Structures are given as C-alpha cells and as structure tokens.
Amino acid sequence: MQFKKLSEDKEIYNALQKEIKRQSEGMELIASENYVSHAVLEALGSELTNKYSEGYPGKRYYGGNKFVDDIETLAIERAKQLFSAEHVNVQPLSGSPANAAVYFATLKPGDKVLGLKLDHGGHLSHGHPVNFSGLLYNFVQYTVDKNTGKINMDEVREIALHEKPKMILAGFSAYSRNLEWQKFQDIADEIGAITFADIAHIAGLIAGKQIDNPVPIFDIVTTTTHKTLRGPRGAIIMCKQKFAEAIDRSVFPGMQGGPHDNNTAAKAVAFAEALQPDFTEYSRQVITNAKALADELMKLNFTIISGGTDNHLMVVDLTNKGLNGRQAETLLDKVNISTSRSTIPFDQLPPYKPSGLRLGSPAVTTRGMKETEMKQIAKWIAAAVDSRDDEEKLAQIREEVKQTCLRFPIPSVISEKNGFANPSDDELNKLNNGFGL
Ligand code: DSN
After folding, report:
1. Which of 10, 15, 120, 146 registers the highest number of CB atoms within 10 A of its CB?
2. Which of 60, 177, 227, 398 is catalytic?
3. Beta strand segments in 182-232, E
4. Which atom of ligand 1 lies at the shortest distance from residue 95's CA?
5. What is the mean predicted confidence (pLDDT) over 2-7?
C-alpha cells in the first residue's frame, strides 16, 4: 500500500505538523540552525531522491544520470563562484563526513594535526578524543587566551613551531571572533603544513561578504550548507587544484557511496540564492542582530565570552546567574526560546551540564527580525532567568515570544496551510517582508 499523500500517514503527519507549529511559534536562537526557502524545500522533496549516481559528472557508475550531471555541475559552478574556489566537491553528506574525507585525503593515521580545543569553541571532528578524528590522528590543540577569550596567534605559532603538525586546522562551532586566515597560512608556510579551514558556522557570512574568505588562501576548506549559508543539510569541500583528485577520491569511493542528488539540487538552489544582492543584506543583518543581542545581554549583566561578537553567535557564561547551561536551555525552552548549552573556555563543569549557553542570530534574521526584536529577546531571556521559579511569569513570557514569532512567518508555514507544493502568491509575498525567500 502506498500513501497518496503524507496526511494519510497520520502518525508522521501529526508529528510533522507539531514540529512546524513549534518552529513557527518558537524563537530559534540555536546558532547552527536556519530556515531554508520554499525553493530549497521543493528541491529537497523532489524525485531526485529516487536516483543513484555514484561517481562524478560524466563518470558515473549507473545509467540515467544525464540530468543529475547537469544539476551537480551547476552546484559545483555556483559554489566556485560564491567562494572563489578552484575546486569544489558538493557530495559530502554533512560536516563530519566532509572533515573525515579531508583527513583521509591528506593524512595517515597517527599524523599530527593542530586544531582548536572543543571546550574553547572547536568541534568534535577537530580532534576530540572520543571522535574518530582524535582516535585516528594525533591532535594537539590550541586554546583561547584566558584573559581575552580570543585566539592568540603568537601562541598558535609557538605551538606549531614546537609540534610541527602536518596540518593546521582553523575553524570553530562556538567562537564569536574573526579568525586571522593569513596568519594561519603564514605559520603553516614556516613549517610546511597543510592549511584546513572549517567554515561551517560562518560560510553564509563569508558568502555575503561580511567576513574574510579563507578559500583563496587556505589549501582546503569545508563547510556545512545548512547554517548561515541557509541551504539543505549537507556539506561541501573546496580546495586548491593540487588537492582536487585526492579529495574527490576520498569522498567517493573512499568514504561515501551514492550522493544524495536531491540535496545536491537544494545546495545549488541555496548557492544561487546566496549569490543574490539581498543575501549580502541578510548576512550584514545577521551580524548586526548578533551584536545587538550581545550588547543588550551585557547591559542586563550577562557575561559574554570575549566581550562581544564579530559574527552570528555568542557564548554566554552563566556562572554569575547561578544556573548552568543545561538548566538555562531547559528554562528557555519553557518560554519558546531554543538555545544550546555550551562549554566555556576553562570550564569547571562537565560538557553535559556546562557553564555556558550558545546563542545565534541566523534563523531569527531570516524571519525578518531586526535590532528591536533582538533587544526584546535579551529582555525575555533575562526575565526568564530572574523569574525561573515563577510559572505565571514564564507563561506570560512564552505568550509574548509566541505572538512576536507569529508576526514573522517561516517558509514551512505555507505547507501547513495550502499543501507543500501550492503556496499562494500572497503567502510567498508575505515572506519577502523578511529574508525568507
Ligand atoms: N552541531 C553543530 C553546531 O551546533 O555547531 C556543529 O556540528
């Protein structure tokens, strides 16, 4: 038996409708999340999911790939244009597999890599001992400076000259300052190391020309496509031509089988959107909003690691507020504000209930929110923390958050009303008030 439409599968349909409602009525401050456009959702839900395409355009191991070749070639060309890349592989299924493919292409097990420590803002796949990266390779790590909360490039250089890693990795999942790409490259040149940047968090801000682009400088750069870049879940690898063959071989047949062609199409759509002038405006507003949120939180006596932000995110040290990141995450969920707990540099608490909370502005900016809403969000966070045992006050905040969210619709709201493939022009136009389409 096949379902004629999703609503006939009541269990999945009902859960999905609840999730759409949650996204619609909730303030999304998870720094790595965003809302894709209706066009990206259409590509994701397309018949391309039916196809197998192991290999690369013009060199497939299955028949019937003429149009998939066209789509993958478009995705590659658009990504090259967006990031000024010499070579792009658009097949990685997500960030960690992309990073794994980079290591497999360039290192042997046991080789030394220098990367940012996880609790200082790094990522699991940058050498954490429980991750494949830390298990297979010999990672040494740099940290942020205890006083400034910022990466000190003199210290990175000192460690690099002493340790002589084969690869230097620059990138983060919880660091709010700009990285000095050229300084990383200069240090790598001194010791003959490969440079690898993971720009998963800031790719959209780079594409929107608000943050310097490491792609023309670094040997290899990976990014996920679903964070500030506002595309489907997935990743890409960009590299200098001399690494192209090794990277492609590492992704397929080294790491992966058939690419997800519906995701490839959706990536191509997102890249085309990011090439438009309004994406520059979007990424500028993402940073403006993050700064407004950080400034207002600091006025309300919250401690922001490094004293502010240059990008879309910030890490709040909650120590002076008498609750940990896990408690804050749970508390804010109660008032429809989604956040993610975070370690802070030199954290005294364990990662499951760390001292910090990571906040980000990409999703709320896509909905069209600006500085006024950011200041209000900071006030709601402060009020929720101050009134954490007052259920009545929390209910009042939740209602205010919900009413604000409903004024800024998300693309998926369309699917709830009219069926996924048939939004009315009016509904599509309404989203143009924000940065949704
Ligand atoms: N899970 C992502 C994040 O939240 O930053 C990184 O992989």
Report:
1. 120
2. 227
3. 194-198, 220-224
4. 7
5. 88
User: CB within 8 A of 378, min separation 6: which ones?
Assistant: 293, 296, 297, 299, 300, 302
- Please tell me if the CB atom of residue 97 comes closer than 6 angstroms to any atom of ligand 1: no
Measured from the CB, is residue 214 less than 6 Å from ligand 1? no
Q: Is 52 a catalytic residue?
A: yes
CATH fold, domain 43-274, is Aspartate Aminotransferase; domain 2 (3.40.640)
Distances (CA, A) of 287 to 58, 312, 374: 41, 5, 11
140 forms beta bridges with 114
Unique residue bearing structure tokens 């409708």: 17
55: left (phi over 0), alpha (psi -120 to 50) or beta: left
Question: Among this protein's residues, is 223 annotated catalytic?
Answer: no
- 404 within ligand 1 shell (Cβ under 6 A): no
The CATH code belonging to domain 6-30+277-431 is 3.90.1150.10
Residue 371 has a pLDDT of: 98
Tell whether the model's pLDDT for residue 3 goes beyond 80: yes
Give the C-alpha separation, 329 to 348, whole Å. Answer: 18
Per-residue model confidence (pLDDT) at position 421 = 43
- The reply to whether omega before 253 is within 30° of 0 (cis) is yes
**What mean pLDDT is predicted for residues 291-308?**
98
Best probe residue, ligand 1, of 173, 222, 338 (max atoms within 8 Å of C-beta)? 173
Q: What is the pLDDT of residues 11-24, one digit of tens each?
A: 998 888 888 889 99
How many other CB atoms are found less than 10 A from the CB of residue 289?
22
* pLDDT for the residue 409: 86
For ligand 1, atom 4, the nearest C-alpha belongs to 32
Instruction: Give the pLDDT confidence score for residue 419 in this predicted structure.
Output: 47
Q: Of all atoms in ligand 1, which is nearest to the CA of residue 174? A: 5
Q: How far apart are CA 234 and CA 228, in angstroms?
A: 13
Q: What integer is the mean pLDDT of 35-55?
A: 95
Q: Is 95 in the pocket of ligand 1 (CB under 6 A)?
A: yes
Q: Does 433 score more than 70 pLDDT?
A: no
Note the pLDDT tens digit of each residue in 150-188. Answer: 999 999 999 999 999 999 999 999 999 999 999 999 999
Angular region, 164: left φ>0, alpha ψ -120 to 50, beta rest: left
Q: Is 43-274 the same fold as 6-30+277-431?
A: no
The domains of the chain are located at 6-30+277-431, 43-274
Does pTM surpass 0.85? yes
Is the C-beta atom of 125 inside 6 A of ligand 1? no
Residue type, 229: L
